[in-house]
Amino acid sequence: xxxxxxxxxxxxxxxxxxxxxxxxxxxxxxxxxxxxxxxxxxxxxxxxxxxxxxxxxxxxxxxxxxxxxxxxxxxxxxxxxxxxxxxxxxxxxxxxxxxxxxxxxxxxxxxxxxxxxxxxxxxxxxxxxxxxxxxxxxxxxxxxxxxxxxxxxxxxxxxxxxxxxxxxxxxxxxxxxxxxxxxxxxxxxxxxxxxxxxxxxxxxxxxxxxxxxxxxxxxxxxxxxxxxxxxxxxxxxxxxxxxxxxxxxxxxxxxxxxxxxxxxxxxxxxxxxxxxxxxxxxxxxxxxxxxxxxxxxxxxxxxxxxxxxxxxxxxxxxxxxxxxxxxxxxxxxxxxxxxxxxxxxxxxxxxxxxxxxxxxxxxxxxxxxxxxxxxxxxxxxxxxxxxxxxxxxxxxxxxxxxxxxxxxxxxxxxxxxx
Length: 418
Prior knowledge:
The structure is a single chain. The protein has 418 residues and is mainly alpha-helical. The protein has helices at 2-21, 23-39, 43-56, 61-74, 77-89, 94-107, 111-121, 129-142, 146-159, 164-176, 180-193, 198-210, 214-227, 232-244, 248-261, 266-278, 283-296, 301-313, 317-345, 355-371, 375-388, 393-407. It is built from 22 helices and no strands. Helix 20 runs antiparallel to helix 21 (375-388).
């Protein structure tokens, strides 16, 4: 054991000595490590190594280009554009810069315009195939174009079946399209390829709860929590499994810890109130928990329904009716949202939905999400409607209102252009 530790320390000492005495050699080592990290999708690690590379090679166009690509894949498009400008200034290859700018467009809210262009470039950049397929799948998911997202995610899994990332993205497509059984299959495949992919395990656990498979869900969420013990929402999911399995003591112990850290966690408060009722305690003991939950999440149908039930038991019929009417309106919006998602997803393997119809559906989805208080999601759906139909005045008006709420009335954020 001591010999092994000495060997590790000696290796670290050699690396530090090289960094101090011969920076060019260490910069090449950092460049190699950055490439390895990016190949493994460890983009935060790759970025750290690239920071070192730029200390020694600040005018290297290839380094700036690679930094831009890593930043884009992390979702940091501002940094990506900055380094692309530096790469162009230092003479990096124009055709690759052009490709990367187009990938930025695809992932930045202009997939309807840039996606077909990038798809046409795929045969010309065989060494960038993974990056292109990844950008197309993520871009179409972001903009709510599920048939296109399904097409490119499926191609990614077919051409690179060993990559868990491809199966994970395909799972996201199925989950967003409300095809939960298929999504669960994809996440299971991810875990077969790499059991350490914790996001896939969490997604699988949540889908198992939707299917009422509580024992399996609890098993998956407990494994997840061993690796990520500070995820409050995952602990609430675990408590929900315990409650469904009638392990109330464990559920209450979990919720107590969560609410100590996050006293306004709506799902934890709701579940705490529900357990009071499950254990046969008086309605007035459950009501304070539910009122706190409703204050934290006023559009949650489960919370509204249970609060209505409790206040009805307490003889407050008018108040109960108010909650039920609110729940009914939200329920109608949710059903309509599911119908929109299904219609957009039905194009997979079926007849194509026209761009005009898709724009109407995206606009309607934006309206629903605004009513539900979900402006960030509404912003994306409305942006997608305007990609499909730039002259859509109603969508443009609502888009501007949402943009003002999100970014301020003086924001210069504009709708992504082709």
